[in-house]
Amino acid sequence: MTTPIQANPSTPVLGSMSFWPADGPSMLTHPPIRMDMRRPGRRETGRAERISVPIEDARAALDDGADLGLETSGFACQRIASAVTDWFDTEQVMALYYEECRAFARELVGASHVFTWDHLIREPGKQTSGGGTDGSTRVSGATTGGGYIDAVHMDYTTETTWTRYLELHGAAEPTGATRVVALNFWRPICEVVENHPLAVCDARSVAREDLQEVFVLGYGAENYSWHDIGIPTYSVKASERQRWYYYPRMTADETLVIKSYDSRGVIGGTCPHASFALPDAPTDAAPRRSIELRVLCYLGATG
User: Fold this and answer.
1) CA 125 to chain centre
2) Cβ neighbours of residue 284 under 8 Å, at least 6 residues apart?
3) Stretch 237-247: mean pLDDT, rounded?
4) What CA–CA distance (Å, rounded) separates 217 from 272?
5) 26-52 burial, b for 16+ CB within 10 Å, e for fewer?
6) How far apart are the first and last CA of the chain?
7) Nearest to 261 by CA among 269, 273, 250
8) Mean pLDDT of 281-292
9) Is residue 156 within 8 Å of 162, Cβ to Cβ?
10) Up-side HSE of residue 286: CA atoms within 13 Å toward CB?
């Protein structure tokens, strides 16, 4: 089903994405839904609804004075230098890129303690999971979340806790933290993104009635830290209230930093997102390849 939403005349693209159905349950009326990607018939209820929504050029919007940023809209595009020379070399990515992202997260939000153990590389129809519970490299397909994800979602919920995630890696939550933030570092590893960019929704334009909590088990390869402990996520209904953006033609020296969790408020403070096909993409566009890595940040912790 395609239900167009009227675009603003200044909006350059209409992007089709997969939303939680308008007549489906929401967190206001329904308990969390369980989805286990390790078995068939994995979602208990619900169905996807393809909807075309206006997606604005974030670069142009910023030039026009739009108030977009990590602490306002919940996302920001940054230039982050990296010494990585082979993104498919898991040992190199873990040794170099993990610390590069941790250092940038400390600077960006003023974190006292930062943690990351996983990264994902997305290509058409598959993903490569690196690091995780055993430091290995594993490839998984679309049935466990590989490829480009056009289902609109939020990575975490107000119910997300971090104890088991940290314990998997022999760590514990720091004491005395005044705030906890999770950042998703989304970076092209191709020369330029010609198609299937990432759309991000202004966090301020999302309401509770748009969301349904879905507890996801079995995501990614078996070494992915959340594979067995499960991830509380939000699936998202489309609303004319929502404001969507993308950064055209992102290059390999740019990183889209998305706030995925905030102890000050997940709803209204963090971003729904999804991939979408550009309607005017070149027919010979190179496949988009990207790496994503999440950094868990504790602010003001004393120990």
Assistant:
1) 17
2) none
3) 98
4) 19
5) bbeeeebbebbbeeeeeeeebebbebb
6) 52
7) 269
8) 95
9) no
10) 11
